[in-house]
Amino acid sequence: TSSSTVYAYITGQAINNNNRVALLQSDGRTVYYPDSPPNTGTPLARNVAIALGAPGNTVTVQIPQMAGGRSVG
């Protein structure tokens, strides 16, 4: 894409935390363990959108040990 408004979302199960659902926060380093939402579509309590910036930009993230991880961008 040529857009500067692109975000990545990194999720998985934290192997070292009872396989809890884990997401990386917008800083690309801090792990967020969300509580089970009361309803489908309930907003997350933390910002987990990792801004990728303009085309050609490089973003470095620190992914902890996860099982079944996904990265969507």
Automatic annotation (TrEMBL):
Start and end residues of each GH64 domain: 2-70
Database matches in InterPro entries: Glyco_hydro_64 (IPR032477), Glyco_hydro_64_fam (IPR037398), Osmotin/thaumatin-like_sf (IPR037176)
Pfam families: Glyco_hydro_64 (PF16483)
Record protein name field: GH64 domain-containing protein
Organism expressing this protein natively: Cryomyces antarcticus
Classification of source organism: Eukaryota, Fungi, Dikarya, Ascomycota, Pezizomycotina
